[in-house]
Amino acid sequence: MLTRRQLLLAAGVLATSATAAGCGGDGPAEPRSEGKLLWWDHFQPREKFERKLFERFAKEPDGLPVDYTVFNPEKQGQALQLAKTSNQLPDVFTLAGVNAPPAQLVREGWFAPLELDDEARKALPTDALFDGLSVFDGKPYSFPVNSPKEYAVLVWYNRELFERAGLDPDNPPSSYDDWRAAGRAIRTKAGTNVYGWILPLGFAGRMREQTEALAQAAGSTDVHGVDLRTGEYVYHSEPYVQAIEFLLSLKRDGTLFPASAQLDARSGRARWATGVAGMFTDGCYCIGVVKTSFAAFADKMAVAPAPVPEAGAPIRIYQPPQPGTFWISGQSKHVAAASKLVSWFIGDEHQRDIATSMASPPFVRSAIDEADVHPTYRKAIEYFDQQCFLAPDPVVRNPAVAKVLAAMRDVKPGLPEIVQGAFSGDVPDYRKALRTLSDKMQAERSRAIAEVAKKGQKVSEEDFAFPDWEPGRDFGPGSY
What we know:
single chain, alpha/beta, D-Maltodextrin-Binding Protein, domain 2, 2 domains, 4-stranded mixed β-sheet, 15 strands
């Protein structure tokens, strides 16, 4: 559910929009924060450090005070859609919960391009800006503040419950079978009403991320269901089936916390921190949130990499370059000030602050080495260093691909709905559902390609395939 403040914000958006409509105007409603920057993001671990940056910015001669809201990532998209409809987008925001590519949002007028001075442009890493991802019509609209090298299915586990169950917290499992056995041991030996696992099953976006990462760890060479070598959709492939079967096995074993179906990442993490379950799947930011909100639990935490079907199997996680982190509203009246503030996020000081907050890893990797972080965060980053690789992105090779992605219509049920349906029983034959998803996604992409090609764009199915790509290696800017 939306928090009270988020509901009040949404209500304020509607009220302001209704007033403007009552006056007979079709244009943007009057801003709710004259003389301020309205900023929405979902980075809970970084809140303290962002507030420090905002306070410093407000004291600048050309700065402004910042009205700052940290959203639950599952709910932010709803608030943004409402704000866009009501002509009340915040000045700066992240895209958590907005399931559309930036190219589509640019076309729909969501964003204004950045207004960066020469000094700010020089501060950007040379490999941070890509046509079709963060640059449109030659103008930069955003840039990545965080590294793409991370994944959201690390296994965070409770050292104290491991010990109670007779498990070695310094030697965690790695295979599906051994993780299942650990869950059963905790369920039967660690205490009354203590379960093996909590999953954020109620958060569709997170379950998509986690299932895709599990499939890659199981050997899939895809990004978002598209095989990097062939360009074909492979949701029906064995690694995806194995990933879903592993998740379902936790329920069959009786080790899954019963309320998992109703939990998102934030509420699931909070329940896990009370000691009701041994394991919780999450990103590296788990420790940052816990240190901020449940500090007494932090030193009970340990972390392990993604589970794999067979012990000792190499883990290879592929992530494409990131399009950007913060975006400036096309409705903003403070684009210059917002651009200056956004540019500060790639500076050395705030990159160290991002690391210190133990959020998603900063874009500048050396900032982590200079930061004071919990040992589990450093361990998680070590896993990412070893296991994460920069994948090729067809949009970078051919910007017209972004128009195809923007033209594609949603296919339902998608991967997260299939996973959730497998747990609820609404999708009993998930193998068939995955095959259908691959076929429908392939057909929808072909339709979108034809639509875009009719408008004069040179794009084809071949643009999605990288037959010379080598698994286990970074595909950097010089590889295209």
